[in-house]
């Protein structure tokens, strides 16, 4: 049996009114008496009537929906961002459509194309780990689609952006390890062309320099897919532990890198922090329940989602073209636990 939504015609037929009268009553028109408006609205509520969004979008030239593209919803960081997005969007009468790129450039292009064809009013996006060509986003932006970037951003497109202070987060993590006696600190990073990677490596290198420790490029390993592929992380860690001078600590610069680094250490019988210290970038609530509890750099994910959505809605609802854009940088926070403290 095919589902058929209730229409204005159905209400009109049931109440013995014209469709135009029902339409005006639902819009609270002054042309319709209060008694008729009450009758129509109460009946509409009783049969779960909802306005047709397609018809509304044609009339208003707006769909009242926004698109969101993240790499993976299951990632705690991005799921918290989505919660922040929805906390603003739904209160303002906008629906949210979410797609996952799974760190694939091809998938991202398809997702963006699909959303644009569905006449979204604006797009919130954190680009995939594979994305180096931004033509698909530049084209839509040039055509007037409001776009706001969060976390992984595109500098070449002039629009609002919301990120974490990645450099200060990595700086704090690395400094903490040095102050706890660690000297050969490895950095497990995402693709080298990504903005978050560049910023976090900058913080890592600054901390080493400020503490008088020479930067060793052999201790930096890049995983192109940001930890989504366990084999990439395994290869990177195999290379680190094959070195004559093995690392005594690791900074894992993303959620999935942290998770798969822990998996590798467990499989290979490498104990934290006895054999090696570990600090991860993670927003998972489970990190404090691990044994030992994990030291993490935590990002204000919910607030990133809130602020990015507020910026996007400002662009959508602006009466004139917006020419002044903001890049909001929110602070990261280091939570120190047992995984990074040398046992005495």
Automatic annotation (TrEMBL):
Gene3D superfamilies: 3.40.50.2300, lambda repressor-like DNA-binding domains. The keyword Nucleotidyltransferase does not apply. It holds the Pfam family Peripla_BP_3. InterPro entries: Cro/C1-type_HTH, HTH_LacI, LacI/GalR-like_sensor, Lambda_DNA-bd_dom_sf, Peripla_BP_I. Keywords: DNA-binding, Transcription, Transcription regulation. The keyword Transcription regulation applies. Residues 6-60 form the HTH lacI-type domain. GO terms for molecular function: DNA-binding transcription factor activity; transcription cis-regulatory region binding. Residues 7-50 form the HTH cro/C1-type domain. PANTHER family: HTH-TYPE TRANSCRIPTIONAL REGULATOR GALS (PTHR30146:SF109), LACI-RELATED TRANSCRIPTIONAL REPRESSOR (PTHR30146). This is Transcriptional regulator, LacI family. It comes from Filimonas lacunae.
């Amino acid at each position: 049996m095919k589902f058929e939504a209730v229409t204005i015609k159905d209400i009109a037929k049931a109440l013995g009114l014209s469709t135009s009268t029902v339409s005006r009553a639902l819009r609270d028109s002054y042309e319709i008496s209060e008694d008729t408006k009450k009758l129509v609205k109460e009946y509409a509520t009783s049969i779960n009537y909802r306005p047709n969004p397609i018809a509304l979008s044609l009339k208003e030239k707006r769909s009242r929906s926004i698109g969101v593209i993240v790499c993976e919803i299951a990632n705690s960081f991005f799921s918290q961002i989505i919660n922040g997005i929805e906390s603003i969007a739904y209160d303002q009468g906008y629906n949210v459509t979410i797609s996952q790129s799974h760190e694939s450039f091809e998938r991202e292009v398809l997702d963006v194309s699909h959303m644009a064809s569905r006449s979204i009013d604006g797009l919130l996006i954190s680009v995939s780990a594979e994305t180096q060509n931004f033509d698909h986003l530049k084209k839509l932006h040039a055509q007037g689609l409001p776009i706001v970037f969060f976390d992984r951003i595109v500098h070449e497109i002039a629009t609002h952006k919301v990120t974490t202070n990645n450099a200060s987060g990595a700086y704090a993590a690395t400094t903490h390890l040095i102050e706890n006696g660690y000297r050969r600190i490895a950095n497990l990073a995402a693709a080298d062309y990504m903005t978050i990677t560049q910023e976090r490596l900058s913080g890592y290198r600054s901390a080493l320099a400020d503490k008088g420790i020479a930067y060793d490029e052999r201790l930096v390993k890049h995983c192109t897919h940001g930890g989504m592929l366990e084999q990439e992380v395994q290869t990177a860690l195999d290379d680190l532990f094959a070195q004559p001078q093995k690392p005594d600590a690791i900074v894992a610069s993303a959620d999935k890198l942290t998770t798969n680094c822990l998996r590798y250490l467990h499989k290979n019988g490498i104990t934290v922090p006895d054999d090696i210290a570990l600090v991860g970038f993670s927003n998972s609530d489970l990190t404090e329940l691990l044994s030992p509890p994990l030291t993490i750099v935590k990002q204000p994910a919910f607030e990133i989602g809130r602020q990015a959505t507020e910026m996007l809605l400002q662009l959508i609802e602006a009466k004139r073209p917006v020419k002044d854009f903001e890049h909001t940088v929110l602070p990261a926070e280091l939570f120190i636990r047992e995984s990074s403290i040398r046992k005495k």
